[in-house]
Amino acid sequence: MGQKRVALVAAGITKFGKRKATFRDLIAEAGKATFDSNKNISPKDVKAFIISTVYPERSAFQGHPAPLAAEWCGVRPTEFHERVENQCGSGTSAIRTAYAAIMSGLTDLVMVVGVEKVMVPSHKEIFLNAMAGSDREWESCFGVTPPPLFAMVAQAHMQKFGTTEEQLALVSVKNHNHSKTNPYAHHQKGATLEQVMTSRLIAAPLKLFDCSTNTDGAAGVIVALEERAKSLTDKPVYILGTAQINDGYPWVAYPKDWSTWPSLRFAAQKAYEMAGIGPKDVDVAEVHDCFTISEIIEYEELGFCKKGEGGRFVEDGQSDYGGEVVVNPSGGLIACGHPFGATGVRQAWEAYIQLRDEAGTRQVKGAEIFLGHNLSGLGEHHILIYGRS
Amino acid sequence: MKEKTTEDYIIDPDVYICDPVPQQTPDQNMVYPFYDHLRDNRLTTTRCKDCGHITWPPKIVCTECMSDQLEWEDFPPTGKIYAFTVQVGGVPPGFQAPLVYALIDFDNDLRIISPLIDTDPDDVHVGDEVVLKVVEAPRDRVLFFFKLKK
């Protein structure tokens, strides 16, 4: 008997942006888009349901989101249902949980919806909510949010490896230009190097365009055991490898050299081994560009380039079409937007369309292997590797 | 920077939901001695009496050996800046830009993140020495800020 395998059989997404929609409107829209993507599956076929969402208790004052979301997607789960929350890595964590539920035999098909309502009427409150994922008693009490934390990551990387602000900016230029071809992206106008470099300062050296975008949005996928998957679509997208790691909490408990993320290197190695591939085999990747510096360090730790050379990698066009690996064709967190609980599921949606040749003008031609990466901290990473076969 | 950093969160004296400053009294928090020490201008954390493991932040159970026999220990009086940034945008309500955040390393091998107070952002450099500056927070609470050592 061959080893059990799990595959994506459906994927849908909402428009990302400042949406005139509630938390549950976004869920319903993603649910419809997901079922619309594969007419062989109806809500009544779904017996297992996972919602990935980070802080509906804050932005919608709504707890207990799993049964609510299932109901708004027309699903009455009889085999498995739960909410998965791992801050910005929730979406990838949720798909891993679906994978585990299927591999355990509890179910053979799971719907995963990732969602975040971020854009509440008061912009101040969005910044307040951003404090909720860090350690409230020892770090958030000072107003600490991700921008200053990743600014210090950038400072450390620039000091150790000579990475420049311009190299950081080039990540943003690339991702903004990619999202011009993604009709679901928050930003679709592109950006020039000058625009990024002269955007307003947030926390030195990070400027507005170095940061991911606060966005409302949701995405959904359906994951199934191989036999079931083959009966639902002739082009399932297989999960080949996955890994997850957390090396410390709070922020100051991570390894001391913030320019180097050994836990991501470790997790990537594990995921590659499980998939039976190496970094050179990855054709297209959606990585966690919460800030431009993150994407640069991810090139290095995922093995796309040598340690310390991430800045040069983007400068040489190696992470763009025609380079070693196309990184963030959707526009990534920076330009597509970052509704926290939705992001990992949005990455899986990109895997689904890229590996089925359905990505339109941003299709990476002949892509066989897709890598998705989320992080929830410098030492906390979540990886899924997908393949056509 | 004004000292009442989180006053804006108090929408009702009996509602704490948006108040990020931790509860610091024995009826709410088992590491309350940390705050008592802080009121005496002492920055402390816990060390395990059984295995000697020290952590930041303080704990009630040793994460190395699961002992609950911990004792309080003072930090060295000065720390050194590993990295810092000046945040001018995206600052949460109740906090005022510019905020100088620093990662501060101590000789006991622990690191703390905290804002620097009473400090001109232009005067800060990696490697600079900083010392504790206790700041009062609403409802008789205190927080551990730092400032450049003169």
Q: Compute the CA-based radius of gyration of chain A.
A: 19 Å
Based on the structure given, which CATH architecture of the largest domain in chain A is correct? Answer: 3-Layer(aba) Sandwich
The level-1 CATH class of the largest domain in chain A: Alpha Beta
Number of H- or I-type helical stretches of chain A: 14
The CATH topology label of the largest domain in chain A is Peroxisomal Thiolase, Chain A, domain 1
Report on the architecture of this protein.
The complex is a heterodimer of chains A (389) and B (150). Helix content of chain A is 35%, strand content 19%. Chain A is of the alpha/beta class. A ten-stranded mixed sheet of chain A has the order 3-2-4-7-1-8-12-11-9-10, with helices on both faces. Chain A has a two-stranded antiparallel sheet with strand order 5-6. In chain A, a hairpin with a 2-residue loop joins strand 11 (369-377) and strand 12 (380-387). Chain A is globular, with a radius of gyration of 19 Å. The model of chain A has no long low-confidence stretch (mean pLDDT 97). Chain B has 150 residues and is mostly beta strands. Helices cover 5% and strands 33% of the residues of chain B. Chain B is built from one helix and seven strands. Chain B is globular and about 45 Å long. Mean pLDDT of chain B is 91; it is low at 1-5. The A-B interface holds A 124-125, 127-128, 130-131, 135-145, 147-149, 151-152, 155-156, 159, 200-204, 206, 208, 211, 250-253, 256, 258 and B 5-6, 18, 20-22, 55-57, 82-95, 99, 101, 103, 105, 110-115, 126, 137, 143, 145.
Summarize the helices and strands and which ones pair or pack.
The complex is a heterodimer of chains A (389) and B (150).
Chain A (H helix, E strand, L loop, with lengths): L5 E8 L9 H14 L11 E5 L3 H4 L5 H8 L7 E5 L5 H14 L5 E8 L6 H7 L16 H16 L3 H14 L14 H5 L3 E3 L2 E2 L9 E9 H7 L4 E10 L15 H14 L8 E3 L5 H10 L8 H6 L10 E2 L4 H4 L4 H15 L14 E9 L2 E8 L2
Parallel strand pairs in A: 2-3, 2-4, 9-10, 9-11
Antiparallel strand pairs in A: 1-7, 1-8, 4-7, 5-6, 8-12, 11-12
Helix pairs in contact in A: 4-14, 7-11
Chain B lengths: L31 H8 L4 E5 L21 E5 L3 E10 L11 E7 L5 E6 L12 E9 L3 E8 L2
